[in-house]
């Protein structure tokens, strides 16, 4: 070791010893000093950070707008800088307005969702509002709150909240021209429809996309009495707390297994605490289409209180969620003579796809972005006409996409074919022997085809394993190739010969089944399918594809009355008649028309125990029984799908 280093070490050690001894010697005379207090930690996060506004091309206001009962609703107002005499477009939602404007981009066009691009470019004022009881808004929340009346004894509803909001906006947003349009999809489309029941004078135009109009007949919660189980997650996420809730946790990867093991929709709900949720308790108490559901049916309300507000009703042809709403609102208003201020658009979309990108749905591709076409060529001209006194939008009474021809078509009225009151009558496509379909009536005597429906082995709605949380599978379930159920003994398949000429339908096909069952309740699923040729050179993966044109389900207990269900008499022929979704479709030469019939579509819909029970949401395990179903196809008991066939007129490129 270096000597100098060693010497330093010794010196230091000596000083240390001397220091200790000195301390000990003076311990009784030197008073110890208190240790200094630690410095307070200073946060690097300010109490409130304010983003400089100079670089933004818009002004953002957050207001708590008061309603007539004192409840205040959280509202975000986006105003283009320099705006003057600008129209307002309002969306009211339970889905958290902060998500719509959370990216803080300095460009208004980039700040807003894709569906609002044209609004930003055109200098519109955009307003988003949390409905009462959700996220930033005060008050009590109800899922699709009913109009004031027997189901709502208060003095407020979504109609009055929309009225009060518009009244405040036109008085307090100085950059506006005093004209308001409403725009929204799904539940947001429901709030648009509610505003029409008593519209504020400033409401000059409305676009209601895929609105929840009748959730028992064919929108979100039920289809003709069969309960839609994915919405149990929605009930929990919307009603378990004021903010964003979560989906119900799963004990297995495959939702088919999860819901089969649960036993029933009601058992699944109770096992996951739904007895705490007010909305679920209402649903569980009203399985039939009684006064409760009838009071919620907005198509009836709209027809009873039709407005003069120009309204565009919008629907996806393959909408997997709210399939009923827009078309039935349109038809109800048309039936009471209010066709002149209402227009209909049906596009080749899944639910709300019109607000995103519309180049394709699943494997089916379009030559242009149909969603952008809709927004740019229909929505904006419509709003410009009524909110800015612009030129006429030149909308057809109904504008509907023709998927097989890949083009939009314009109609003076809709539908073109129906049971009564249309240009063309429906035409029966009959189930025939050897699993064939024909427009010729059956001539045989009491013939039929049978299958056994086993509730312990229900038919899946998409191939397993399946998860409701799989967004891609959920969005495209209605265009899924149906070959995955080929060969199942509990699925009957009927098909025509290859077509030699185009066959066009315009309207809603009607399933008309005559059947017997050994059980006392039964579900009937009917699928109308376009079967592609075995080889399809334009897109080889579509060779033999079985494309659903319409799928729906009917719960047999409601065959004579939706409000008052009754047991099915075992082994006695009964008729089951129900409409499939609207379509504007051409079955092309070389294609075949197929009809598939089954009794389960699981777990999209709850299982029918095939035994009549008081409440089909809560069957007991012993209620689930196999049943043999026989579809009759004889001259005196013919099963068919009534098709809205019209003369085919080729388009400019056909």
Architecture overview:
The chain is an alpha+beta fold and 654 residues long. 21% of the residues lie in helices and 25% in strands. It has 15 helices and 29 strands. The strands form 6 sheets. Strands 1-2-4-3-5-6-9-10-13-14 form a 10-stranded mixed sheet, with helices on both faces. Strands 15, 16, 17, 20, 23, 26, 27 and 28 form an 8-stranded antiparallel sheet that branches. Helix 5 (158-172) packs across helix 6 (187-195). The radius of gyration is 32 Å and the shape is globular.
- Give the overall shape, derived from the CA principal axes: globular
Regarding quaternary structure, how should these chains be classified? single chain
| β-strand number | 29
The gyration radius over C-alpha positions equals 32 Å
Which structural class do the helices and strands define?
Answer: alpha+beta
Spatial ordering of strands, largest sheet: 1-2-4-3-5-6-9-10-13-14
Q: In what range is the share of β-strand residues?
A: 25-35%
Stretches with pLDDT under 50, minimum 5 residues: 1-27
Largest sheet: 10 strands, mixed
**Helix residue percentage:** 10-25%
Report the end-to-end length measured between terminal Cα atoms.
100 Å
Instruction: Tally the helices.
Output: 15
Overall pLDDT level: 93
Helices and strands, with pairings:
Blueprint: H1 3-25, E1 58-66, E2 72-80, E3 86-93, H2 97-100, H3 108-111, H4 117-121, E4 125-130, H5 158-172, E5 176-185, H6 187-195, E6 203-209, E7 222-223, E8 226-227, H7 231-239, H8 255-262, H9 265-271, H10 278-285, H11 291-296, H12 298-304, E9 311-316, H13 325-335, E10 342-347, E11 360-361, E12 364-365, H14 370-388, E13 398-402, E14 407-411, E15 427-432, E16 436-438, E17 448-453, H15 471-475, E18 492-495, E19 503-507, E20 510-517, E21 523-531, E22 546-555, E23 574-579, E24 583-587, E25 592-598, E26 627-634, E27 637-638, E28 640-643, E29 645-646
Parallel strand pairs: 3-4, 3-5, 5-6, 6-9, 9-10, 10-13
Antiparallel strand pairs: 1-2, 2-4, 7-8, 11-12, 13-14, 15-16, 15-28, 17-26, 18-25, 19-24, 19-29, 20-23, 20-26, 20-28, 21-22, 21-25, 26-27
Helix pairs in contact: 5-6, 12-13
């Amino acid at each position: 070791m270096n000597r100098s280093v060693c010497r330093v070490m010794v010196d230091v050690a000596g000083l240390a010893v001397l220091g200790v001894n000195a301390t000990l010697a003076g311990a009784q005379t030197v008073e110890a000093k208190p240790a200094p207090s630690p410095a307070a930690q200073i946060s690097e996060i300010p109490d409130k950070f304010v983003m400089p506004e100079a670089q933004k091309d818009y002004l953002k206001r957050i207001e708590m707008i008061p309603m007539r009962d004192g409840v205040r609703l959280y509202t975000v107002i986006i105003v283009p800088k320099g705006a003057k005499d600008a129209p307002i477009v309002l969306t009211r939602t339970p889905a958290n307005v902060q998500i719509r404007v959370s990216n803080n981009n300095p460009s208004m066009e980039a700040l807003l969702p894709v569906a609002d691009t044209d609004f930003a470019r055109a200098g519109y004022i955009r307003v988003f509002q949390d409905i009462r009881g959700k996220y930033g808004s005060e008050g009590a929340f109800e899922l699709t709150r009913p109009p004031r009346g027997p189901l709502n004894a208060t003095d407020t509803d979504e109609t009055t909240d929309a009225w009060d909001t518009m009244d405040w906006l036109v008085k307090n947003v100085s950059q506006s021209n005093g004209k308001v349009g409403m725009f929204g999809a799904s539940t947001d489309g429901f709030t648009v429809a509610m505003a029409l029941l008593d519209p504020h004078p400033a409401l000059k135009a409305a676009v209601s996309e895929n609105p929840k109009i009748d959730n028992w007949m064919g929108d979100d919660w039920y289809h003709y009495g069969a309960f839609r189980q994915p919405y149990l997650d929605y009930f929990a996420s919307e009603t378990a707390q004021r903010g964003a809730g979560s989906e119900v946790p799963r004990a297995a990867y495959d939702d088919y297994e999860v819901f089969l093991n649960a036993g029933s929709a009601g058992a699944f709900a109770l096992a996951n605490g739904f007895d705490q949720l007010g909305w679920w308790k209402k649903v569980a108490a009203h399985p039939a289409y009684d006064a409760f559901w009838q009071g919620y049916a907005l198509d009836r309300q709209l027809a009873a209180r039709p407005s003069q507000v120009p309204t565009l009703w919008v629907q996806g042809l393959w909408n997997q969620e709210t399939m009923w709403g827009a078309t039935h609102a349109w038809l109800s208003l048309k039936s009471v003579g209010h066709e002149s201020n209402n227009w209909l658009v049906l596009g080749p979309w899944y639910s709300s796809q019109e607000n995103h990108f519309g180049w394709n749905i699943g494997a089916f591709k379009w030559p242009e972005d149909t969603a952008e076409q809709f927004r740019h060529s229909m929505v904006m001209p419509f709003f410009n006409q009524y909110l800015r006194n612009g030129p006429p939008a030149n909308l057809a009474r109904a504008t509907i996409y023709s998927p097989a021809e890949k083009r939009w078509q314009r109609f003076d009225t809709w539908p073109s074919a129906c049971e009564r009151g249309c240009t063309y009558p429906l035409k029966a496509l009959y189930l025939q022997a050897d699993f064939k379909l024909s427009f010729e009536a059956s001539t045989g005597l009491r013939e039929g085809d049978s299958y056994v429906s086993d509730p312990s082995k229900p038919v899946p709605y998409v191939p397993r394993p399946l998860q409701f949380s799989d967004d891609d599978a959920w969005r495209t379930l209605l265009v899924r190739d149906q070959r995955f159920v080929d060969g199942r003994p509990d699925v009957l398949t009927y098909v025509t010969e290859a077509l030699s000429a185009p066959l066009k339908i315009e309207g809603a096909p009607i399933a008309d089944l005559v059947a017997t069952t050994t059980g006392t309740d039964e579900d009937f699923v009917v699928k109308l399918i376009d079967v592609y040729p075995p080889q399809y050179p334009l897109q080889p993966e579509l060779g033999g594809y079985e494309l659903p044109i319409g799928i729906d389900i009917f719960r047999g207990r409601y065959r004579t009355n939706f409000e008052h269900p009754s047991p099915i008499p075992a082994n006695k022929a009964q008729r089951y008649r129900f409409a499939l979704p609207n379509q504007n479709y051409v079955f092309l030469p070389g294609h075949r028309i197929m009809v598939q019939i089954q009794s389960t579509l699981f777990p999209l819909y709850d299982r029918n125990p095939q035994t009549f029970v008081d409440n089909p949401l809560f069957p007991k395990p012993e209620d689930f029984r196999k049943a043999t179903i026989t579809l009759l196809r004889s001259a005196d008991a013919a099963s068919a799908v009534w098709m809205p066939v019209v003369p085919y007129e080729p388009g400019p490129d056909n």
